[in-house]
Amino acid sequence: MRQIIALGGGGFSMEPDNLLLDEYVLKQSTNPCPNVCFLPTASGDSEAYTARFYASFQKLNCVPSHLSLFKPPARDLEDFILNKDVVYVGGGNTKNLLALWKDWGLDLILHKAWHQGVVLAGISAGSICWFEEGVTDSYGSGLEPIRCLGFIEGSSCPHYDGEQERRPAYHKLIQSSKLSPGIAVDDGAALHFIGRHVHKVVSSRAKARAYRVYKNDKVIEQAMDTYFLGGPSQT
Predict the structure, then answer these.
(1) Number of domains into which the chain is organized
(2) Rounded to an integer, what is the distance from CA 72 to the centroid of its chain?
(3) Domain range for residue 129?
(4) Which residues participate in catalysis according to the annotation?
(5) Which of 97, 103, 84 has its CA nearest to residue 134?
(6) How far apart are CA 51 and CA 36, in angstroms?
(7) What is the pLDDT of residues 102-161, one digit of tens each?
(8) Judging by beta carbons within 10 Å of its beta carbon (0-12, 13-18, 19+), is residue 30 exposed, middle or buried?
C-alpha cells in the first residue's frame, strides 16, 4: 500500500511535547516497532535538527536512524532506504532538497520505496516535496511556486495558519494560474494519502485544519473534515 503523510507543521520539530502526529505516522507501518529514517536534507543535514529527531523518536516505539547526504551511511542508498518502514523528511529549503535528491538519485529511490510500501512522511519542505507543486520561500524573500516530485497531484501550501503571508500568497498564485489547485494545511494538521487520494486529515491541535483551494471565477477555500488525534476515540 502506497502511503504519504504530509504535515503542514507541527510534529517533533515544532511541538516536541506533542508527538501525536509523529505517533500517527509510525502507526501506519505494518511493523509494530518500525524502522524510521529521518532525512534532514532540506536543513543542510543540520546536526541540531537531527539531534531533536532522535530526542523525540527515542521516546516512541520505533528504531530511529537518519540519512545524511553529506556523510552517507552506506554506498548503496537504495538498499539503506528500502530496508526502512518509514521515511520522515524534515523542513528547510525545498529547492536544495530536490536538487540534492535528484543528484544522488534519491528521488527515484523514494519513488520505489513508496511503491514497495515504505511510509513516506514529512513536514513543510518535507511535505510539499511529494506534490506536483508547492509554495516555497526557498528563493529568498517572498513566496513562490516550485515544481516538486509529483507523487501526489496538484499543489500544496504548508503553515497555512502559522505564517501570515501564506494564505494570501497561495490564493494569489492559484488565482493567477501560477499554481494548480491543491490543499493548504495548517500547522498541527497532516494529510494522510493512500495512493494518490486523501484517506484522512488528522491533527495534533483541536483547531488545525486542511483546506481544498481552487479557482472558480474567484479562489474558493473548502475546509476538509479533520480528526483531532487528542480526542477520546481518535487513533
Answers:
(1) 1
(2) 22
(3) 3-228
(4) 124, 159
(5) 97
(6) 14
(7) 999 999 999 999 999 999 999 999 999 999 999 998 887 789 999 999 999 999 999 999
(8) exposed
